[in-house]
């Protein structure tokens, strides 16, 4: 089943809890949480206290996307504040294998994210250990950017690699997803779609329902 993961980066932070409850009621299965440190990416978003504050709003999967340098420093904290999936960028990890093992040792699912220009080859040896691959389809750092077209081909190649190895690894695609780009991305083999501005830029519940409806066809 295809999964929608609304990114709260584009939510109205004045009423974050209510907005999360609204998208969950409308059918969102994951909540995508973008953590930015101002070093790995140009912007700073939010961190552990915010995640902890909204953890009791829902028991849906908290899909935490760490856009931070040397994420090992904080993985324990994110596990403790309620993350279910912890995704690190391959570009931010000197010892990716060790980081993936560390996330698993805390009883959490491990995701590895790749920037648009990063080749799939960095996953060659570690893929069997990874629960989810997050393919960025914009350069990370901000919501509301345009989908980079060459990413579709990358999603197809990732799907092929997973199938050839007979794995169950999920593919999440993040950046520039709206009701028009979603179909191309789903056809290419994505399992999980992140949508920030496309969900929270309008009426979040209605937008979520529209996505869920579209995704049912795949
Ligand atoms: C971008 C973040 C995304 C962002 C997506 O750096 O990783 O999750 O919220 O925003 P949209 O869907 O607006 O492109
Ligand atoms: Zn993200």
Shape: globular
By DSSP (H or I, 4+ residues per run), the number of helices equals 8
The CATH architecture designation is: Alpha-Beta Barrel
Question: Helix content range of the residues, please?
Answer: 25-40%
> What is the CATH topology descriptor?
TIM Barrel
Unreliable runs, pLDDT <50, ≥5 residues?
Answer: none
Span of the ends, CA to CA: 8 Å
Instruction: Give the strand tally.
Output: 8
Beta-strand residue percentage? 15-25%
Top-tier CATH class = Alpha Beta
User: What's the rounded overall pLDDT mean?
Assistant: 98
With strands numbered from the N-terminus, the spatial order across the biggest sheet is 1-8-7-6-5-4-3-2
Question: Could you give a short description of this structure?
Answer:
By secondary structure, this protein is an alpha/beta fold.
List keywords for this structure.
218 residues, TIM Barrel, binds D-xylitol-5-phosphate, globular, 8-stranded parallel β-sheet, 8 strands, 8 helices, binds zinc ion, single chain
Model description:
There is one protein chain. With 218 residues, this protein is an alpha/beta fold. It has a single domain (3-215), classed as Aldolase class I (TIM Barrel). The protein has 8 helices and 8 strands, in the order βαβαβαβαββαβαβαα. It has helices at residues 16-25, 48-54, 72-80, 96-105, 151-164, 181-188, 197-200, 204-215; strands at 3-6, 30-36, 61-67, 85-89, 109-114, 132-136, 170-174, 192-195. Helix 1 (16-25) runs parallel beside helix 8. Zinc ion is lined by residues 7, 32, 34, 65, 174, 194. Keywords: Isomerase. This is Ribulose-phosphate 3-epimerase. Its EC number is 5.1.3.1. It comes from Hominisplanchenecus murintestinalis.
């Amino acid at each position: 089943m295809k999964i929608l993961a609304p990114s709260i980066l584009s939510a109205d932070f004045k009423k974050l809890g209510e907005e999360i409850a609204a998208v969950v009621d409308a059918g969102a299965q994951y909540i995508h949480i973008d953590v930015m440190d101002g070093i790995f990416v140009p912007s700073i978003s939010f961190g552990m206290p915010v995640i902890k504050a909204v953890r009791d709003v829902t028991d849906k999967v908290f899909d935490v996307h760490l856009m931070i340098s040397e994420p090992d420093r904080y993985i324990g904290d994110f596990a403790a504040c309620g993350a279910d999936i912890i995704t690190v960028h391959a570009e931010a990890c000197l010892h990716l294998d060790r980081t993936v093992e560390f996330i698993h040792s805390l009883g959490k699912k491990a995701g590895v994210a790749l920037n648009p220009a990063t080749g799939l080859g960095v996953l060659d040896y570690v893929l069997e250990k990874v629960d989810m691959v997050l393919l960025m389809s914009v350069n990370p750092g901000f919501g509301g950017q345009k989908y980079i077209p060459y990413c579709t081909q990358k999603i197809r190649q990732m799907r092929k690699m997973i199938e050839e190895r007979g794995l169950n690894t999920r593919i999440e695609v993040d950046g520039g997803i709206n009701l028009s780009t979603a179909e191309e991305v789903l056809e290419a083999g994505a399992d999980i779609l992140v949508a920030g501005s496309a969900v929270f830029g309008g009426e979040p519940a209605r937008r979520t329902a529209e996505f869920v409806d579209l995704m049912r066809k795949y």
